[in-house]
Amino acid sequence: MTKVMMRESLVKEIEPTSKGLIKNPISDLVVTRSKNGKALSVFSDDIWDYSATSNSLKTINFRAKIQHLPALSNVDSNKLSLAVKFLKIFALNWVCEVNGCSMSKLNGDLVAISFLVSHCLINHVNFNGIFTDANAIDFLVTNSSAEKQIGLCLGKIQRFIDTASVLNQNDFWCELQPSEEFLNKLKKTRKIFPETSQSLQTMVIPSRIYQSLLKDTIESLKSFNEVKHEIEYVFSMRTKVRDEALRLDKTVPLSKIKKSQGSLVSFYWRAALETDSKLKNILVKLEGLSIIKDANWSSLIISLGQIQMKSALVIAAFTGMRKSEILSIPFNGLKYIHSDSGDIPVIWSTTTKLESNGVPRFTKWVTGSIVEEAFKAAKFIAKGALNWSGNKSKVETDDSTLPLFLSIENGKFGKPHPHFDYSTTALNVNLIQRIMSSEHLLISEQDLDEVSHFLYGDEISNKIKLGQPWP
To answer: What is the reported pLDDT for 272?
Structure first.
């Protein structure tokens, strides 16, 4: 059942009722209780009160879930009551199988199933046949308020059917087995109204491309870290040239370099390249190592952005962090748990997944030593940008106010990230496309076969093309 139910809900505002009690629920079966254990709602109530456990949505009105549709305004009250009763029985059994869930999840699930129950009510179909009449899908599409709701409801119905198919020995679910006609109609309609839009849908990346990308990325970060001392000299010279070019009084406020000042710095930089053989030789060495494309400053800046992206990819791969969580990592975000078997790396950041209403919460991700290379590279770049960006260097004393992924382009003067005093890098998608365009990462026949296998017969996206980069 774990494959059907996915992961357990983080918030369990609704706890399951004993399976023995819901086989044939009596009218006075207690379904919700107060904080002190007294009954709040019983099965016969049309509105169940969850105020003792829910901080947001506090009640579920079963009758309103069905009666709100215009087509049901003149339905016989006795038949309507039978539909409401079935919906409540369905809710009890569903909560039991998902082992508890949030109010928002149950409410959304009941909205989806209520369309099918309503269709059965109007067309005099037995409620146990909610997954048999394909016309019920058209009824849902016609009566939904928005395309997004259609896609979400169809996805939920698919999970109900998956549950019924797996629990075909269960007294309740065995009665709800879907017909082939219903399954085919659902599959076709879900292609028209996807649960997640194509622009946001994550595709299964072939293992060969994924592993090769990770291998390249890790090796690239190691190579970068091995020449950090040389690059540090380049950073120091850039800072020195900037200071010599501007010759600012120490009392002049910190500010972004003007266009004319930038031209002057570039002039002094070219002069430094002609006189400083060490500086020139380092840039030539970096070019030879393929860390930069050309032996100049602008090429190094482009490379630094790519290294930041690669650092983010490694962190994401070995933690599961999302982009927003990665960009919220502070400069001092790598900590360690000390154990008998050694130090275990832990990344600190904030996430919106653990609190209601998307409130950011400081938390940590346990990871492996491989992310240390990513941290070394990202920290080195952030410190460098603090030195050479703007008209003056700045030493940050509070590492918690400095983002690990400090924006190279904006330096100290972009729009600050909500958690920091500075802006973060954009992690531009163009950088990923450039990385994925390497010849050995282009899509092969093997990759197409693997993707096709995991799509279980569904058509491969037209964005995936042989010999092209992974989209």
So the answer is: 94
